[in-house]
């Protein structure tokens, strides 16, 4: 059944048949001229961005990637249908970070204001020792990061993000079918057809596979290219818990953590914990990364149930703040456990009329908090690229541009997780002392130089300003437009 109603509705953009003002109808020959001079100009022009050739697009999966892409495409005039396997798109997950590289896209997609109501703008991230909770260093975030990148950084509950995206997609006329598992795709990749579990075949101009970390379309594309698509254990798993503020109320020892705007990162031997408040400080989110146990090796699921008793045992030797926080997890409460696997980069994200996005092509480990943000970047790039082609036969050009703009960048961010994992999980000793010294030095340099740590690189890449510049400073929609000519000439 298609989902057709929601309690809240948004007014869709008025369809005006104009594209970015300087965009000629034959986009290929002249797109080299930069048409967005800065973010503000782009934002102002965005509501009038209309696709030159409206397409019929099928999206597999209504996660963050699928819904964001549907919004960008529907808002620019394409006819979009999503097929989602689960019967109900409901509250699942825990905290997710929306960094500036994603929030500037979400603003153009008309969802940022709504997200701000539930999101928390983190002012500072505090890096702390596992054993005694002593602060090693910190990194300044909002409002300075927002001013620097002209887009905010916030943390939200994944369920809130998904709900807001779903509402916006529906208001733009996207048709979403739940309980609609896609079980096969056309053996001829030049034909954009999918088959549902019911046996029905659906055809369109393009299929966007946003079917997540266990994507079967990725497996099909990899097979077609003769590539062995493997998933390798990182040796880590992550507990995800969300503690209700009411449970901690009155306990001054931890109340400041949920009321405040500071993210906490405790680093210890073999693991680390990232924690921050979400949903307007009503919930406290904790992701606790620890060494995997042998029986978990094959389970790469977001929804596996973990055990509170095992979790408490794992963190028994950690500081009392952490133990105190964990004591508030209800005994029968939701402790989810997520096995962290890494995936080798694919030779290509595109095959004929099929394209992969989000976790289906660049599954991100949580060490750099970029999973949702990179899926949203994919949505931004596809929206611009598919909007610029003057004919269905040029879908391949748009996908070529998408892959050129996104693949190298997405895979670099994906790979950075491994380096970060090593740094965050050092056992106490010389290497750990050196890491902590560098974190202190980098924090000090940033304080001295007005937020710029210059040459003093931070071994925690998430807190490193050069890496932040690379992750957060990019306006990927603007890049797509500016690189269009160049990429298609190659
Ligand atoms: C249940 C769940 C909970 C999560 N919780 C967190 C969290 O707490 N913190 C965090 O940082 N990240 C979480 N994530 C991951 C995060 O949402 C993604 O890393 C990121 O947003 C990229 O999203 P995506 O759209 O590429 O993939 P996903 O969000 O994984 O979405 C993929 C979608 O495709 C659907 N699908 C899969 N196969 C098929 C098929 N054959 N036919 C039709 N539909 C199909 C799935 O049901 C799913 O809805 C979670 C993901 C899921 C699915």
From TrEMBL:
Residues 56-413 form the FAD-binding domain. Pfam families: FAD_binding_3 (PF01494). It comes from the Eukaryota. Residues 425-459 have a biased composition (Basic and acidic residues). The keyword Flavoprotein applies. Residues 1-29 have a biased composition (Polar residues). Keywords: FAD, Flavoprotein, Monooxygenase, Oxidoreductase. One of its GO terms (molecular function) is FAD binding. Gene3D superfamilies: FAD/NAD(P)-binding domain. Signal peptide: none annotated. Residues 1-37, 422-460 are annotated as: Disordered. PANTHER family: MONOOXYGENASE, PUTATIVE (AFU_ORTHOLOGUE AFUA_2G01950)-RELATED. Belongs to the paxM FAD-dependent monooxygenase family. This is FAD-binding domain-containing protein.
């Amino acid at each position: 059944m298609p989902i057709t109603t929601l309690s809240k509705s948004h007014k869709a953009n008025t369809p005006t048949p104009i594209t970015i003002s300087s965009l000629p109808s034959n986009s290929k020959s002249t797109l080299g001229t930069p048409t967005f001079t800065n973010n503000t100009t782009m934002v102002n022009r965005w509501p009038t961005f209309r696709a030159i050739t409206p397409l019929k697009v099928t999206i597999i999966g209504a996660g963050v990637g699928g819904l964001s892409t549907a919004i960008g495409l529907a808002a620019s005039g394409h006819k979009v249908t999503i097929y989602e396997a689960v019967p109900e798109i409901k509250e699942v997950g825990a905290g997710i970070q929306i960094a500036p590289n994603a929030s500037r896209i979400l603003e153009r997609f008309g969802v940022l204001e709504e997200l701000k109501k539930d999101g928390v703008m983190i002012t500072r991230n505090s890096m702390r020792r596992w054993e005694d909770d002593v602060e090693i260093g910190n990194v300044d975030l909002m409002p300075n990061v927002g001013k620097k990148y002209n887009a905010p950084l916030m943390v939200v509950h994944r369920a809130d993000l998904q709900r807001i995206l779903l509402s916006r997609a529906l208001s733009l006329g996207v048709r979403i079918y739940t309980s609609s598992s896609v079980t096969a795709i056309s053996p001829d990749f030049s034909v954009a057809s999918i088959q549902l579990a019911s046996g029905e075949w659906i055809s369109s101009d393009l299929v966007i596979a946003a079917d997540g970390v266990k994507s079967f379309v990725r497996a099909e594309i990899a097979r077609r290219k003769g590539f062995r698509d493997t998933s390798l254990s990182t040796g880590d798993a992550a507990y995800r818990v969300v503690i209700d503020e009411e449970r901690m109320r009155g306990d001054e020892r931890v109340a400041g953590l949920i009321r405040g705007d500071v993210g906490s990162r405790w680093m210890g031997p073999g693991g680390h914990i990232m924690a921050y408040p979400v949903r307007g400080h009503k919930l406290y989110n904790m992701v606790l990364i620890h060494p995997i146990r042998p029986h978990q090796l094959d389970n790469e699921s977001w929804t596996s149930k973990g055990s509170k008793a095992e979790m408490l045992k794992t963190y028994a030797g950690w500081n009392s703040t952490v133990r105190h926080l964990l004591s508030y997890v209800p005994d029968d409460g939701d402790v989810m456990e997520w096995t962290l696997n890494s995936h080798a980069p694919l030779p290509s994200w595109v095959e004929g009329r099929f394209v992969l996005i989000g976790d289906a092509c660049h599954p991100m480990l949580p060490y750099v908090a970029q999973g949702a943000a990179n899926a949203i970047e994919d949505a931004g790039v596809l929206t611009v690229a598919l909007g610029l082609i003057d004919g269905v036969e040029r879908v391949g050009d748009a996908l070529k541009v998408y892959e050129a703009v996104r693949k190298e960048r997405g895979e670099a961010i994906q790979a950075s997780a491994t380096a970060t994992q090593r740094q965050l999980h050092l056992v106490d000793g010389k290497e750990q002392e050196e890491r902590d010294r560098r974190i202190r030095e980098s924090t000090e340099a940033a304080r001295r130089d007005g937020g710029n740590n210059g040459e003093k690189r931070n071994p925690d890449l998430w807190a490193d300003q050069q890496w932040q510049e690379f992750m957060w400073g990019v306006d990927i929609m603007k890049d797509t437009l500016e690189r269009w000519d160049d990429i298609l000439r190659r």
